[in-house]
Amino acid sequence: MTLMILSHPNFEQSIANKTIVTELIKQQHDLEVRHIYELYPDYQIDIAAEQAALLRHDLIILQYPMYWFNMPAILKIWFDQVFSYQFAYGSKGDKLKHKKLLASLTVGQPEQNFIVDQKNHLMQSFLKAVQASAQYAQMDYVDPVFLYDISTAIGHSEIQIQAKAKAHSQHLNTLINTLHQSKK
């Protein structure tokens, strides 16, 4: 089964993330979505509930918009508290071992704004901490997926953004199915 940790502080106003989640729920009937801003508006994470959710699933998707070249604040707090000693790491901290972690980000700007040269893509460097955290918790880090160029501020209509988000959701659906098949 798949768990999505949704971290969007303005989800109701979102076009891309809301479309991605809505479409993916239609395609993945065993998908559990935990919208952590909605669950914890006071940022007081229920660590036991979040750890229990992680234990129920083999694939964890982090779905969020890129904020200032990083994850939203609550997702960082979630990592800090949920990936705890003797749960995610330490001598008995193997509870996440071999679970897959996939980051799915929405980015307002076009992809070319993040390409330094043929060998260097800034988005990969922005996710080094997520990758290192997954590896430290003995998880299998899956190459992230990005949805670029989705800002209404740079002239895209809601319909254009929804179309891109639906394609992203379909890509995620295919990836989820492939990852689940590779486990069998």
Question: Helices and strands in order, then pairings?
Answer:
Blueprint: E1 2-6, H1 16-27, E2 31-35, H2 36-39, H3 47-56, E3 59-65, H4 73-82, E4 100-106, E5 115-117, E6 120-121, H5 122-126, H6 128-136, E7 140-147, H7 158-183
Parallel strand pairs: 1-2, 1-3, 3-4, 4-7
Antiparallel strand pairs: 5-6
Helix pairs in contact: 1-7
Textual characterization of the structure:
There is one protein chain. With 184 residues, this protein is α/β, with parallel strands linked by helices. The chain has a single domain (2-183), classed as Flavodoxin domain (Rossmann fold). The protein is built from seven helices and seven strands. It has helices at residues 16-27, 36-39, 47-56, 73-82, 122-126, 128-136, 158-183; strands at 2-6, 31-35, 59-65, 100-106, 115-117, 120-121, 140-147. A five-stranded parallel sheet has the order 2-1-3-4-7, sandwiched between helices. Strands 5-6 form a two-stranded antiparallel sheet. Helix 1 crosses helix 7. The radius of gyration is 16 Å and the shape is globular. The mean pLDDT is 93.
